[in-house]
Amino acid sequence: MGYDVQHWIDGREETGGGSTQPIMDPATGAEVGTLHLGDESTVDRAVQVAADAQKEWAKVSLARRTQILYRMRELMIEHTEEIAAVISREHGKTVGDAKGEIARGLETLEFATSITQDLKGGFSQNVSTGVDAHTLRQPLGVTVGITPFNFPAMVPFWMHPVAIATGNAFILKPSERDPSASNLVARLYQEAGLPEGVFQVVHGGRIVVDALCTHKGVSAVSFVGSTPIAQHVHRVASAAGKRVQALGGANNHAVVMPDANIEFAASQVASGAFGSAGERCMAVPVAVTVGDAHEAFMTAIAAEATRLVVGPGDDPSTDMPPLITPEARERVIRMTDEAEQAGATIVVDGRGLVVEGHENGNFVGPTIITDLAADHPTYTEEVFGPVLVVMHVNNFDEAIELVNSSPFGNGTAIFTDSGHYARRFEDEVQVGMIGINVPIPTPVGYYSFGGWNDSLFGEHHAHGPEGVSFYTRQKAVTTRWPAQNESVESSMSFPTH
Ligand code: NAD
Fold first, then answer.
1. Of 281, 260, 305, 306, nearest to 440 (Cα)?
2. Ligand 1 mean position to 308 CA, how many Å?
3. What CATH superfamily classification does 3-248+463-477 receive?
4. Is 65 strand, coil or helix?
5. How far apart are CA 423 and CA 150, in angstroms?
6. Which of 174, 138, 149 lies closest to 159 in space, CA to CA?
7. What is the residue with the minimal CA distance to atom 35 of ligand 1?
8. Structure confidence by residue, pLDDT tens digits, 239-292
9. Which of 169, 230, 376, 398 has the most beta carbons within 10 angstroms of its beta carbon?
């Protein structure tokens, strides 16, 4: 029933050889479409097409590549409403939030349009007598991106504009939950003039992921998703000799100091905790109140949570949308139950929420939990739902210790008026991305995105300068042009100058 989503290979849709799976609307629980899942043969065909296309694409001038990327940017802007509506239907997020992720994804495309600057090599004249040295950055070949459900446009955009601009072919394996945006992007790349086979989409689950990670024609794998799958992809693809960057899950803490503007901190933490129902890798599921900040913060955050309107993503009055699946909703309810059974206080309880007219949707209301032990799984694990756990500590040093006790290290924030504590915070936390009075410190497209510890496996962060390094490899060239009649005595010593 509904629409059909197929693979995008060699410039057109095809069903491939695998099975199918339903695409669901999280706000209604209804099946809206059918997704064709690939298998090893689908992957093999896509890689062969990509390998052929890449050989020609690498020869295309930087000027022409840049023109295509500029045209792609215009097309993405023209089609933003259409893509946002598709994302909202399949993911559940509000249309405004979907437009926001498209805009953030376009930052990386904009960064990639200046690839002419980033691919400049170095040159040194006369490094030895009559000898020059220069460097080249060259593409890797066929690159792969495996992406999560929570940002079906933005996260793939962290990868493919940079991979393509640097002369690679790119195969996207998006989440099975919200696959349609990727096919729309493929059509727009075609309209922008990108040669067939340079950008392709193969849908599927573990079979396709493992086939991509081990295919001999693939050079590099970028992954974004949960930590266990990031570890799996990093292990399998590394063992097969691929370059790998695998970004994993998170459990981001926001520290609220007593000198902070508490009303401001509460409104920012609320947007971090409950925006997109907490289904963001840079969400704020933990607030750490320091000393006297606790009481005022609890009052302010409870007021923020209780005023939020929960509803379907296509209703303009909705603040907080449904979760992605019934299983995700059940997990949030179970983890709240378990915290309560362990003696925690449920300050705001979203478990019983029903959205009228959407009784089969995956809705749960904003939930705030406090008085929870620091070793309880509802605090230590990634809940990935609209649940804020508030931990209370006595001083700044205890706050740092708590932040650093998490095995994850994606993002963190501090709310304070003190430059002294802000400076110590950014120095002492073992986390990749830090916000000072900013709750979701997602770096702009021309910086690089990446966490530490169990939030990233591999050496490179995503997009920005590290993206260029990831998708290219360097050659160092040493050049000498002796005169036709120049004669030099041969020497067996190691040359020094
Ligand atoms: P997921 O790990 O379940 O899926 C991610 C990708 O892996 C999907 O394409 C999926 O098809 C594939 N996959 C799933 N199970 C697999 C398996 N057993 N073997 C091989 N491949 C498999 O993640 P999700 O639920 O789609 O997304 C949410 C997670 O992603 C959260 O943990 C969130 O923190 C994380 N995330 C991290 C970042 C970051 O930048 N670090 C950004 C966005 C999301």
1. 281
2. 28
3. Aldehyde Dehydrogenase; Chain A, domain 1 (3.40.605.10)
4. helix
5. 32
6. 174
7. 225
8. 999 999 999 999 999 999 999 999 999 999 999 999 999 999 999 999 999 999
9. 169
Residue 247 in contact with ligand 1 by CB distance below 6 A: yes
Ranges in the chain annotated CATH 3.40.605.10: 3-248+463-477
264 φ/ψ angles, rounded to the nearest 5 degrees? -65, -45
Whether residue 102 is predicted with pLDDT greater than 70 in this model: the reply is yes
Q: How far is the CA of 71 from the centre of ligand 1 (A)?
A: 30
Cite the residue boundaries of each domain of the chain with CATH code 3.40.309.10.
253-436
252 lines ligand 1 (CB under 6 A): no
Helix (H, G, I), strand (E, B) or coil at 221: strand
DSSP state of 309: P
Alpha-carbon span 36 to 349, nearest angstrom: 39
Cβ of residue 224 lying under 6 Å from some atom of ligand 1 = yes
Atom 27, ligand 1: residue with shortest CA distance: 148
Q: Determine which residue's CA is closest to atom 21 belonging to ligand 1.
A: 206
Got the DSSP string for 116-178? HHHT---EEEEEETTEEEEEEEEE-SEEEEE--SS-TTHHHHHHHHHHHHTT-EEEEE--SSS
Residue 46 predicted with pLDDT over 80: yes
Give the C-alpha separation, 216 to 20, whole Å.
26
| Both structure tokens of 269 | 């933490």
Mean pLDDT of 6-18: 92
Of 12-21, 121-130, 208-217, minimum mean pLDDT range:
12-21
Helix (H, G, I), strand (E, B) or coil at 384: coil
Query: Cβ neighbours of residue 210 under 8 Å, at least 6 residues apart?
Result: 236
Question: Which architecture characterizes domain 253-436 according to CATH?
Answer: 3-Layer(aba) Sandwich (3.40)
Using CA atoms, how far apart are residues 77 and 273, in angstroms rounded to an integer? 29
Catalytic residue selected from 281, 288, 347, 372? 281
Q: Are the beta carbons of 89 and 25 closer than 8 angstroms?
A: yes
- Please name the amino acid found at residue 328: A
Q: Which amino acid is at 249?
A: G
Query: Which tokens is 14 given?
Result: 């095809």
Strands 220-224 and 243-247: parallel
Atom of ligand 1 lying closest to residue 146 CA: 9
**Alpha-carbon torsion 383, 311, 301, 150, what sign?**
positive
Q: How many CA atoms lie within 13 A of 481 on its CB side?
A: 4
Which residues are bridge partners to 456 per DSSP? 247
Can you tell me which residue has the tokens 């606790």? 294
Residue from 87, 90, 104, 149 to probe ligand 1 pocket by mutation (most atoms less than 8 Å from CB)? 149
